[in-house]
Design goal:
single chain, Arc Repressor Mutant, subunit A, 2 domains, three-stranded antiparallel β-sheet, 3 strands, 57% helix, elongated
């Protein structure tokens, strides 16, 4: 299987969407846009088609069939292969704890439901430890600068980053608590049937 770390965020989101069921590229684009995933990755038609073709060459998905509706062009339906399932999980597992790759983290967080609840809690704990260390580093830097008489106008960016880190730790603690006490439904199997049908989500997570 290709190295999951080499997958682009868009490739991960395509593979993760196919975990919900076979679909053609047009439907992939529709679902990603409907879910506002264009906030996370560019959703340009040419890039999506190119990415799907590359994922097929890498053995992560395959053609499931070709259909035609009326006078519309033929559409190829794709299904996720076992290697594609594993690639999504490995990528999310690697990116979720990291604090130096904010764009990748946002995609990993959006796809974290592809991992088991307890594993996500453990990965978020790793991230929290890194965040707290960064909070301490920023706080120490601010205190040191103030002690040296550095004018505050030169420190406003550092103050902002410190405040953002404090806010993320607080948010992370809230999310972790909801995962741990199971008040937050997690995984496709816990999505109510009527919601799954409305948003075309299948309970199936394995081929």
């Amino acid at each position: 299987m290709p190295d999951a770390s080499r997958l682009t965020p868009l490739a991960v989101m395509i593979l993760a969407t196919l975990r919900e069921g076979d679909m053609h590229t047009y439907e992939l684009m529709r679902l990603l846009r409907e879910r506002r995933d264009d906030r996370l990755v560019p959703l340009q038609k040419g890039t999506i088609y190119h990415t799907v073709a590359r994922l097929e060459r890498d053995g992560l998905l395959e053609e499931a069939g070709v259909d035609r509706e009326g006078n519309r062009p033929e559409r190829t339906t794709y299904r996720l292969l076992p290697a594609g399932h594993r690639a999504v999980e490995e990528w999310v597992r690697a990116e979720l704890p990291q604090i130096e790759r904010p764009s990748e983290f946002r995609v990993a967080l959006s796809e974290a439901h592809n991992l088991e609840r307890d594993e996500v809690v453990a990965l978020l704990d790793q991230r929290r430890a890194l965040l707290v260390a960064s909070v301490d580093e920023h706080r120490s830097g601010l205190e040191g600068a103030a002690g040296r008489g550095v004018p505050e106008q030169f420190l406003v960016e550092l103050q902002r980053q410190s405040a953002l880190l404090d806010a993320e730790v607080a948010w992370l603690d809230s999310l972790r608590a909801r995962l741990a006490d199971r008040s937050l439904p997690w995984g496709l199997a816990e999505i109510p049937d009527h919601i799954r049908q409305k948003h075309r989500v299948s309970k199936e997570t394995t081929p």
